[in-house]
């Protein structure tokens, strides 16, 4: 798409982007939103760490465009810059083998705070010359990039070419904050002076808190649903940061995530289906049952649960009631990876041959098959900033059963006036959850017309990025007009 010369230039700084490096919804949002923003007249590019986890064939295509040194924690640290057009989006990569060419996962290393501080510091120093392009607005995503507004202000604030660049900080999940108890690492790991701790910018309850610095220093801050933005005024959801959110409420707001047009689009499957022609959904249900060794039975309800196996996702509620649930007329499919004790407990559920399967691992193809082939999808999250999985399942006619929190409450509601899209429960409690599943089963087996109506409502809902991408574009344009 050709953009006008004067299009607003926005740089996404993120630790994940779908198909390059992904652990969750952040990656989908970065890819999908950067793809659709040009339709709103925004010239959007993305910058990421050059992880070895990026598929080799893609790494090979990323062309080196600069080699430089970044002054970080008292040393001049090597920093390569690479460039690649990926799915129509121009992506840059910060290349430093010590920080990003690591075995294992993209997160979970002892020095993660330092790795992402280096990434953020590098982005700020590269900012004015990304291949002859420099942004008007930096949109930082999550704690890994939350030091950018502070670095920009602290190191470059007096330079006019930097002060014109505005920052939006997007919180995808406030549970991850980049915290450290010992302020002694301020300089050695974050390249910051003691002042930013003493004056409270990065200090929360005597600890370093990188996310707080993003909230304090960014020109605007948003999160990924309106309901979650409201919930964050309460410490149950804000994980200790409610007072900070409330202090900066004047620049804080919610914008609901959307889904890319091709994501979980049943009309684009090899055997397409839609709300007006569901015949092929049965094909995917059969394929799912066959592939996972479940009893092939078109009549029987199949419930899917695809999630990071973390406390947030309500794994304990599912495990609490799984044996009781499997006494009902239902098949259950679990796909996830995460906390070892949850993985272990799901693996150990035995004795339900043909009725239960837990696939422990990350498998995007299987996830898509579950969205397409299951009848119901469970999301009993304790908190859920937006949630994409419930939208993906609804697009495929797989009826969600969710706890009413965050973006789940903004996207799923129970039938009362003909618009119902799923089944909901209020308390983070396994009794409430199982009752919602029983209500769903009752409608599935005994009120077929009603079930079809709920499926149709979900399948025809607008989960596209159109509205939200417009809102982001307005925010960027307002920022540069300020
Ligand atoms: P979160 O970002 O908190 O993980 P979301 O619902 O916003 O939750 O997004 C989760 C995304 O990650 C969805 O695209 C979902 O299908 C995918 N996902 C989660 N776990 C797995 C897994 N084990 N295998 C494949 N995809 C997964």
Explained architecture:
This protein has 21 helices and 18 strands. α14 packs across α19. It folds into 2 domains: 267 residues, Glycogen Phosphorylase B (Rossmann fold, 3-Layer(aba) Sandwich), CATH 3.40.50.2000; 195 residues, Rossmann fold, CATH 3.40.50.2000. By secondary structure, it is of the alpha/beta class. The protein is globular, with a radius of gyration of 23 Å. The protein has a 9-stranded mixed beta sheet with strand order 3-4-5-2-1-6-7-11-12. Strands 15-14-13-16-17-18 form a 6-stranded parallel beta sheet, sandwiched between helices. The chain has a 3-stranded antiparallel beta sheet with strand order 8-10-9. The site of adenosine-5'-diphosphate (ADP) has 17 residues, from α1, β13, β14 and α16.
